[in-house]
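quick one before i forget lol
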Amino acid sequence: MLASYKRYWEPSKTEVMFLSLPIGAITTLLTQPLEFVKTRVQLRTEGIGIRNNFYDIGVNPWKVFRKIHETGIIYENQFTIGGGLRQFYYGVDAALYSRLSYLLVRNFLYKTIYDKVKPPKKTNDLTLREKGVLSAFVGGIAGFISTPFELVQTRMIADGAVPSHMRRNYTSALDGLAKIVEVDGKIIYLQIQPVGYKGLFRGGFANVVRLAAVNASLTGPYDYLNEKLHITFGAFGFNEFLSLVWASGWATALTIPLDNIKTRLMRQYPDPAFNRIHYLSYYGALIDIVEIEGVTTLWSGSYPYFGKMLIVGFLTTYLANLYMDNQKKKAGLQGWQI
């Protein structure tokens, strides 16, 4: 009787890649407006801080959304994007390139390393701490590789909030990459010197640390609470959602300051005259933000950031479980094993 069914099933590396990329594309398209609003909110606080949250439309994400939705932006001598949701998808190609390249590298490395280091017995698994460390490690590597597209996306979102003479006017993700290599630079001996391909990784360190922290702070709290809820209440439907809310809250609180620093450094112009605050380093950016605007500014954009993280986590978990549960049934597992 015990040999009449399979005891174990897990997806292959090919299945992981096949599943994660389309889900990543879907979640990116659905959450792009949240990413757009979050970035605009973060840039609005620069030099002002959220303590002055009644300044114009302030940092209220709903007011920022409504303002952009109603007015849109006009790109001189280039193209026009009017009001409506279309405005929020300017730069979505860069968002897709960034997300899919990140997932491709992250999941390939995770599955490869996981298969090599997990316990020999199939029904055993890595500890929560081991999963957290592994997630952070591969997330950081994937974040470094996806940085150029993250850079272009940030600048494309920022473009509509500045005067026409300050706009970079990237027409697409690939156009943005080419222009960064060609014209981006930094101040060297009081002159702007081109930096070539190095310019593609401006703000890269903050992006790497942020994504490593996101992976660790999502994986650890989610697995911990999900396991505790299953032990306490059994396999109830709310377990995974509550665990996602809990993990998304921790990830938002811990990583939004890094996201703020990343956004500002990526958006920064080589010419100091174009910047509200000219940052010279990652540490310098942190000190300038705290001294000029107050420490709470580091958490600006938290609401749309949390919303995006929760939606991505929920849809990823839901769609992945649909596929894997179906595959487990095909593999011969019983209902109580799934």
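fyi The longest strand covers residues 185-188.
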